[in-house]
Amino acid sequence: MAFLITKDFLKKKPDNTQPEPKKTVSLTKNPELNKKLTLRKDIIEQKAEKASIGGTMARVVFALDHSGSMRKMYNDGTVQTLLERIFPMAMYFDDNSELDFYWFDSVYKELESVTPDMLEGYVSKVILSQKDHFGGTCYAPIMTEILNRYGKRDPAKIPTFVIFITDGANSDKRAAKDVLTEASRYNIFWKFIGIGGEHFEFLERLDTLTGRFIDNANFANVSDLSAISDDDLYTLLLEEFSDWLDLCKKNGISVG
């Protein structure tokens, strides 16, 4: 099911091990940011409890568009603000409160994992300082890497929750469909979010793609990230996650 929200509104884990208990981690050195992070984590916890998935552990992955049309959002602080809103998902679900982070355009790049110590100023320190070229938009290369890493090279009993955000259509639709279909047999959940006011017909089709082993993806269109409240953002991010966990359990896919 797709949703529209407008302005109005690693640590390696071998497959044969049990997930470790969550660890207590420090927050940032910025008290104001810590307050926001704690409040956001509390919202996520409340929503997880309401959906009967409280205490669920997952590896959280953030894949963010790095195409030319995103350049302004990287430079004007929009991406940093977004990262600070996404990070509490890792604080709640991830076993070591780290957020695995990739950018993608026509290629992809794995970045340093986001930790509480790294969060403040992360975009300027880790991304913009490298002066990488902003390219076109392809989904399949980064999707393939995520499938290979979390599904094949480094499998775990706990699921992987992928937050995939883009502001434009891709040029490799057939390949992206094939990757999502293959990934439907692994414990990887894909949350696709379209931003910037596009229609994203292709992502809507991925949301209802036939031929998959189980439904492993959900799509939402958010025209303006600054207009959506934290409460609504986390409702959107968690939509269908509990349903997918149930499907995995019924079909023999390990989710912890």
Q: How far is it from the N-terminal to the C-terminal residue, by CA?
A: 25 Å
Overall shape: globular
How is the largest sheet built, in terms of strand order? Answer: 1-7-6-5-2-3-4
The overall average pLDDT, rounded, is 91
Count of helices? 10
Helix residue percentage:
25-40%
Task: Tell me the number of strands.
Answer: 7
Order of SSEs: EHEHHEEHHHEHEHEHH
Low-pLDDT runs: 5-23
Structural class label: alpha/beta
| Rg from Cα | 17 Å
Describe the structure in your own words:
Helix content is 40%, strand content 15%. It has 256 residues and is of the alpha/beta class. Helix 7 links the parallel strand 5 and strand 6. Helix 1 crosses helix 3, helix 1 crosses helix 9 and helix 6 packs parallel to helix 7. The longest helix is centred in the N-terminal third of the chain and has 20 residues. The protein starts with a strand and ends in a 6-residue tail after the last helix.
Give a summary of the structure in a few sentences.
With 256 residues, the protein is of the alpha/beta class. It contains ten helices and seven strands.
